[in-house]
Task: inverse folding
């Protein structure tokens, strides 16, 4: 089976276009975060939702029979209309469309799923991160997170083009299996959720520090933009929800990988470097979830564990593919 | 509480060892040995210990990816030992080449699993009781609950309770009325059940894997195209069986490798050129003695299932057909010899040992080039493509003692040259000659001739028998379902209380409690109250002045309008 060169070229051009769009979105997100973005009407500083939820009906001062609604929207000023960030989100949608186009063209050019080497893993993995982020925006207002999502996506695409680039080609026999689709696609979604969770966790740690300083009577001097972001508690809960979705998906990735390994190599578990690190990631996120349920380990300490787990994930993605040889050596780099 | 219990808690509470000085002994009696054991058990089964063991497990798994492992690639371990003469022995002493079978790694996961048992067993008992028990009675003061609300209605107590029961049932609460003016409800017991299933499944997974290591076996074998293979011990090149596996346990099947096809990328450029695209072997399988042969195909992701075991295609290579005649003209070796591939273009090396050759034993070392071409830079012949488009054989010959008679097993792929002499050419250098298919070479010194008759391929097969793997999968999937339920099901308790008051007005109170952090509990309580009491009245006003405002529908995605009505800084 051959390679459709035109489609492969089109895919590359679409990647460049997507990168340009991402760059615009990134700048817009950053401007909004810095507080210099355009705001349509002055708003009230938002209160946090979901904390101290005491419902009082017909109580003194409440008046009427309407129950106040509570919301999980993670921190945005309800009556403020931020135009810059609206543009950023819109441009991100455009970038996503271009990016999806690039991945689809790449796949069509070789008539298979474009998950055969490091370059393809990178462009497909990052498209899932953007998609998951934009979908998450429907459920919770995570627009403040844009800079910390689009930045890494753009970086990954840059690395993919500059370092990992591999010409379109057919798959080696070990990858020719339906399990490739199942195993890798779920791994992508789980990883994307871990990426979003990590961005929130980092912000949580920064916010936590600022809150600790403020409580000690020494308001932090730098990073004024953080004041617009939700509190450490809200960030903690939001990131937990992402991790809670990602963890079962990662478990599934391991199981699907084991089933495939059994079919392909004869053993469901081989202690291959990729497997070892996937296992380490699983245990690390299990530790995080466990820590959140352990007294004295929640909050800041659990957040550090989530960070460690994320570094393991990144090492598994980049480090293991490049530095280790093993059964998963399909990266096509080096 | 027994005296023992009272004592044993102390060290745990303080997190320190008890002092033994006389003064404190009065206040803090010595622990009995049993007390100590109980204290240690409590420490081991605490959440904190489990967490530390989990982190240790992740940490301890890492070295296995950095240091070569004997069970994965023994040759890399040898290379590592040669490269690091100082470090190597220490790594070996610390079981660094077998991390996942080492005492320290086992100790961590065994302690973790013991800790898990100690935690899960009492919780299972509790959960069993909780599943059978009714939802608990309503607390006397609902306003003490983290989420609570009150309202008033003109409807009767019975009507309110009936509507509340219906609303709770619709949200799949278990509902029970302990008395005439309250309703107790709870839901989400599945969360804890899922959590327990997850942990118990992990235990099952480990136990099944342990059983599997006793009764499973695996072996590797090389089969040349045209050869017949049967599932008996002598046919294996290497064999690893669990302790409970004997030679009688091998299922009596056999097969003949009819053909093997390999397909390589000829169209791509760059590093994908020459990459493997498809491998396919055709087998004629006899499932048990006397059965009719059946045609079967074997591919990389498509093993052969036969008689309970699986045969995997894990490798392939070339087997040049070589005929060796000795100095007296007798055929001393003939047939296809499997060569080991050394690079992506299948440059392969192999040896032929002719023990019966006269006047002296003859050993051949050969390099096989499937698509030979001259390297423009060095002038040497190299293989430029993995397919056999221009097969060539580079020969080196040795005479002397092959070392086959001392009873020590020797690899068929290695020539022990310690007691052999290289055959030299007329120029005094080691004799070498590259020949194509059908060509022969006469070895100098009347040592015989070598003929390159043709090329065939062989496959490397991995045979595995592990009846427990399906149970491993079942436990893994159960763990997945369990963890999903425990992370997504919310455990909640809700109580309703109705209090009839003057003027036909009924006061309705609701309280909600969640076992976990539950940001949507308030929303749930609100919508339950709305559903149970659709017509609300302000107790200060007469009944006929009920406000006509329709309640906000629950579950909408856009909550802007509701929030707009909220006085700033209140209500949430």
Result:
């Amino acid at each position: 089976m051959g390679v459709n060169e035109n489609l492969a070229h089109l895919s590359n051009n679409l990647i460049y276009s997507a990168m340009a769009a991402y760059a615009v979105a990134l700048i817009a997100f950053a401007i909004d975060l810095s507080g210099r973005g355009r705001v349509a009407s002055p708003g009230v500083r938002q209160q946090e939702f979901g904390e101290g939820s005491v419902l009082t009906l017909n109580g003194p001062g409440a008046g009427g029979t309407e129950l106040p609604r509570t919301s999980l929207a993670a921190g945005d000023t309800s009556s403020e209309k931020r135009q810059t960030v609206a543009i950023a989100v819109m441009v991100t949608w455009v970038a996503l469309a271009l990016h999806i186009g690039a991945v689809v063209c790449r796949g069509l050019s070789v008539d298979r799923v474009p998950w055969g080497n490091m370059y393809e893993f990178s462009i497909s993995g990052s498209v899932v991160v953007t998609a998951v982020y934009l979908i998450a925006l429907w459920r919770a207002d995570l627009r403040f997170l844009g800079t910390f999502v689009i930045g890494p996506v753009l970086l990954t695409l840059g690395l993919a083009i500059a370092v990992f680039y591999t010409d379109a080609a057919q798959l080696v026999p070990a990858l020719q299996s339906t399990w490739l689709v199942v195993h890798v696609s779920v791994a992508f979604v789980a990883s994307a959720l871990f990426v979003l969770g990590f961005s929130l966790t980092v912000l949580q740690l920064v916010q936590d520090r600022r809150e600790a300083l403020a409580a000690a009577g020494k308001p932090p001097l730098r990073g004024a933009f953080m004041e617009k972001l939700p509190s450490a508690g809200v960030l903690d809960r939001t990131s937990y929800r992402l991790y809670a979705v990602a963890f079962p998906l990662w478990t599934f990735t391991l199981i699907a990988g084991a089933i495939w390994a059994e079919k392909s190599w004869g053993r469901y578990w081989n202690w291959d470097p990729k497997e070892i690190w996937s296992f380490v990631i699983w245990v690390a996120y299990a530790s995080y979830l466990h820590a959140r349920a352990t007294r004295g380990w929640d909050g800041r300490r659990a957040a550090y564990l989530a960070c460690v787990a994320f570094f393991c994930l990144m090492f598994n993605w980049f480090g293991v593919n490049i530095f280790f040889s093993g059964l998963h050596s399909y990266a096509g780099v080096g | 509480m027994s005296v023992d219990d009272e004592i044993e808690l102390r060290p745990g509470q303080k997190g320190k060892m008890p002092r033994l000085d006389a003064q404190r002994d009065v206040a803090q009696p010595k622990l009995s040995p049993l007390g100590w054991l109980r204290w240690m058990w409590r420490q081991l089964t605490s959440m904190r210990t489990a967490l530390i063991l989990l982190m240790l497990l992740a940490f301890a798994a890492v070295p296995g990816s950095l240091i070569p492992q004997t069970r994965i690639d023994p040759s890399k371990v040898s290379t590592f030992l040669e490269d690091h003469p100082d470090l190597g022995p220490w790594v070996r002493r610390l079981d660094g080449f077998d991390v996942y079978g080492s005492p320290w790694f086992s100790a961590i996961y065994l302690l973790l699993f013991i800790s898990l048992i100690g935690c899960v067993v009492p919780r299972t008992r509790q959960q069993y009781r909780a599943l059978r028990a009714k939802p608990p009675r309503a607390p006397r003061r609902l306003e003490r609950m983290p989420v609570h609300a009150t309202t008033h209605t003109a409807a009767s107590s019975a009507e309110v309770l009936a509507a509340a029961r219906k609303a709770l049932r619709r949200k799949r609460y278990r509902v029970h009325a302990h008395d005439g003016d309250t309703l107790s409800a709870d839901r989400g017991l599945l969360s804890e059940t899922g959590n327990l299933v997850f942990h118990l499944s992990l235990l099952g997974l480990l136990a099944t894997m342990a059983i599997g290591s006793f009764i499973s076996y695996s072996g590797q074998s090389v089969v040349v195209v045209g050869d017949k293979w049967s599932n008996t011990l002598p046919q294996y090149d290497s064999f690893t069986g669990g302790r409970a596996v004997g030679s009688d346990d091998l299922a009596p099947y056999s097969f003949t490798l009819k053909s093997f096809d390999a397909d390589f990328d000829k169209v791509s450029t760059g590093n994908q050129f020459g990459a493997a695209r498809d491998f396919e072997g055709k087998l004629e399988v006899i499932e048990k003695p006397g059965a009719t042969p059946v045609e079967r195909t074997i591919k990389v992701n498509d093993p052969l299932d036969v008689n309970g075991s699986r045969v995997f295609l894990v490798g392939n290579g070339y087997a040049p057909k070589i005929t060796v005649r000795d100095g007296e003209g007798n055929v001393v070796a003939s047939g296809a010899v499997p060569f080991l591939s050394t690079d992506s273009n299948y440059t392969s090396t192999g040896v032929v040992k002719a023990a019966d050759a006269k006047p002296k034993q003859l050993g051949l070392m050969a390099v096989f080039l499937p698509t030979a071409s001259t390297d423009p830079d060095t002038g040497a012949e190299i293989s430029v493509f993995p397919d056999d488009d221009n097969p060539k054989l580079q020969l080196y010959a040795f005479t002397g003692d092959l070392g086959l008679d001392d009873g020590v097993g020797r690899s068929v792929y290695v020539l022990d040259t310690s007691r052999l002499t290289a055959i030299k050419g007329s120029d005094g250098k080691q004799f070498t000659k590259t020949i194509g298919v059908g060509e022969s070479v006469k070895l100098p010194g009347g040592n015989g001739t070598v003929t390159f008759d043709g090329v065939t391929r062989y496959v490397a097969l991995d045979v595995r028998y592990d009846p427990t793997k399906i149970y491993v999968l079942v436990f893994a999937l159960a763990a997945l379902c369990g963890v999903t339920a425990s992370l997504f099901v919310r455990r909640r308790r809700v109580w309703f209380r109705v209090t009839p008051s003057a003027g036909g007005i009924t006061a309705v109170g609701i309280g909600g409690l969640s076992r976990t952090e539950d940001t949507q509990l308030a929303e749930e309580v609100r919508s339950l109250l709305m559903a149970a009491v659709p017509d609300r009245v302000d107790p200060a006003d007469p009944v006929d002045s009920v406000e006509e405002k329709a309640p906000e529908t629950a579950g909408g995605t856009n909550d802007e309008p509701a929030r707009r009505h909220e006085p700033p800084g209140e209500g949430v």
In short: Chain B has three domains: 41-124, 133-188+490-564, 218-465. Residues 1-25, 541-572 of chain B have pLDDT under 50 and may be disordered.
